[in-house]
Design brief:
Length: about 400
C-alpha cells in the first residue's frame, strides 16, 4: 500500500513557513551577490588604472580576472530567480537542480580561468627579457584586492552555508580565486622592489596558486556531478533517518530507504511496517508523522514518500520457494535474489526441473512459476527465472 505524499497534505502553517523561508533565502543570495558585483567592478577599475599607470601587465591581467567574476555573479543572480521558484505542474519537486547546473557552470568557469592563467604563467617562464614592475602602486592595489576579496569570500561562504546554497558557496570561491590571483602580483611587485634580479618569481608563484584554484574547481564541480548522476546519501545519513523513523510510535520496522540529491535538498522514499490489523486511517497518520519528524530533524530533506506495509511474519524467500515448488514439474529452487523497486519487488532465481524434459516444457514451467508469483500477495512485479537441470542437489 503506497501512502500519498504527506507534503501535499501538510498543515497550512508549515507550507507557509517553507514559502517564506525560500523567499528569505533567495533575497539573501541576491543581496550578497549584488555586493560582490559592486566590489568586483570597483576593484577591476582600480587594478586596471594602476596597471596602465605603472606599466604592469600582471596588474592589468588581474583586473581582467576580476571582471571575469562578474559572469559568475550574473549567473547566480539570474539563476536564483529560477531555482527559488515554487513547484509547478512541470516541476512538482521544485527547480533546485537549476542551482546545481549554475554551480557546475561556475566550477567550469573557474577551471577555465585557472587554465588560462596557467598557460600565460608557463609561457612567461621561457621569456628571456622581462619588463621591470613598478612596485608600490601595484603592491598597494594587490593587497587591497587580497583583503577585500577574502572578506567577501568569508561573508559569501557563510551566507551560502546558512541558506544551503551550493551556487553561492561556489561563487564565494570565485572571490577567493581573485584574492589568490592577486598574491603573485603582490609578490612580484615586492620582489621587483627588493630583488630586481628575481624576474620570474611571479610566474612560479602563479603556477602554485593555479594548482590550488584547480583543486577548488574540482571541489565545486564534483558534488554537482554526483547529484546529477543521482547519487544518494551515504550509509551514515541513511542510518540516522532509519533511527528517526524506527523510533516513531506504531512503526514496527523500516527498510528500503532510498535518497536522491536535489539541488541543496534531498528526496527520500522508504518502507515502514505497521501492525497488520491497523486501520488504513491510522497507518496513514503514522506515515505523515514519520515524514514530518524526518523533515523536522533533517531540514535538508525536501520530500518524503512513505510506503506503508503490514508487518509480515512470513519470510519472503521461504514463501517464494513454497509458491514455486507448488507448480507441477519444479524439482527445486535456489539462488533467490530480491530487489526493491518503486511498486514492490523484482526477484530472480534458479528453477530446477528433470534433465530429460524438453526445453519447451521447461520454459512452460518457468512461465507458470512466474505467473504464480505475480498473482501472489508478495508484491512481486517482475521475475527473472533461470532454468537448470536437476541432479539431486544445487
Amino acid at each position: 500500500m503506497n501512502i500519498s505524499d504527506p507534503l501535499n497534505e501538510a498543515p497550512e502553517a508549515e507550507l507557509s513557513f517553507s514559502v517564506q523561508k525560500s523567499e528569505v533565502d533567495a533575497s539573501l543570495v541576491r543581496r550578497i551577490t549584488l555586493w560582490g558585483m559592486v566590489m568586483n567592478l570597483l576593484l577591476a577599475a582600480a587594478k586596471f588604472a594602476v596597471g596602465l599607470a605603472a606599466h604592469s601587465q600582471a596588474c592589468v591581467a588581474d583586473a581582467i580576472h576580476s571582471l571575469s567574476d562578474l559572469s559568475s555573479d550574473l549567473a547566480v543572480l539570474i539563476g536564483v530567480r529560477f531555482w527559488s521558484a515554487p513547484a509547478d505542474s512541470d516541476h512538482p519537486h521544485g527547480h533546485q537542480r537549476i542551482e546545481s547546473l549554475i554551480t557546475l557552470f561556475i566550477g567550469a568557469l573557474l577551471g577555465a580561468t585557472a587554465i588560462g592563467m596557467a598557460s600565460k604563467a608557463i609561457g612567461s617562464l621561457g621569456e628571456t627579457e622581462t619588463t621591470p614592475l613598478s612596485s608600490w602602486p601595484v603592491l598597494g592595489v594587490s593587497l587591497l584586492s587580497i583583503l577585500t576579496k577574502e572578506i567577501l569570500y568569508q561573508w559569501t561562504v557563510a551566507s551560502g552555508q546558512a541558506c544551503h546554497s551550493a551556487a553561492l558557496i561556489a561563487n564565494a570561491w570565485h572571490h577567493r580565486s581573485d584574492a589568490i590571483s592577486s598574491i603573485p602580483v603582490a609578490l612580484a611587485a615586492l620582489a621587483a622592489r627588493i630583488w630586481p634580479e628575481l624576474s620570474h618569481l611571479d610566474s612560479i608563484a602563479a603556477i602554485i596558486v593555479i594548482c590550488l584554484l584547480l583543486r577548488a574547481c574540482w571541489q565545486i564541480a564534483w558534488p554537482c556531478i554526483k547529484e546529477l548522476s543521482d547519487q544518494g546519501l551515504g550509509p551514515q545519513e541513511l542510518e540516522e533517518m532509519r533511527r528517526i523513523a524506527s523510533a516513531m510510535p506504531g512503526v514496527k520496522n523500516v527498510h528500503n530507504l532510498r535518497t536522491r540529491r536535489f539541488g541543496s535538498s534531498v528526496l527520500l522514499d522508504m518502507h515502514i511496517m505497521v501492525d497488520k490489523d491497523m486501520t488504513v486511517e491510522n497507518s496513514h497518520r503514522i506515515a505523515e508523522e514519520v515524514a514530518d519528524e524526518i523533515r523536522r530533524k533533517k531540514p535538508l530533506v525536501l520530500d518524503v514518500l512513505t510506503h506503508v506495509e503490514p508487518e509480515n511474519s512470513v519470510n519472503m524467500k521461504d514463501e517464494i520457494v513454497r509458491l514455486a515448488r507448488s507448480v507441477n514439474g519444479v524439482r527445486d529452487i535456489h539462488s533467490i535474489r530480491i530487489r526493491s523497486v518503486l511498486n514492490g519487488y523484482d526477484v530472480d532465481f534458479h528453477v530446477q526441473v528433470s534433465p530429460d524434459l524438453p526445453v519447451s516444457e521447461g520454459h512452460r514451467i518457468c512461465g507458470e512459476v512466474r505467473a504464480t508469483l505475480l498473482k501472489s500477495p508478495l508484491k512481486i512485479t517482475g521475475a527473472l527465472i533461470h532454468l537448470e537441470p536437476y541432479y539431486g542437489g544445487n
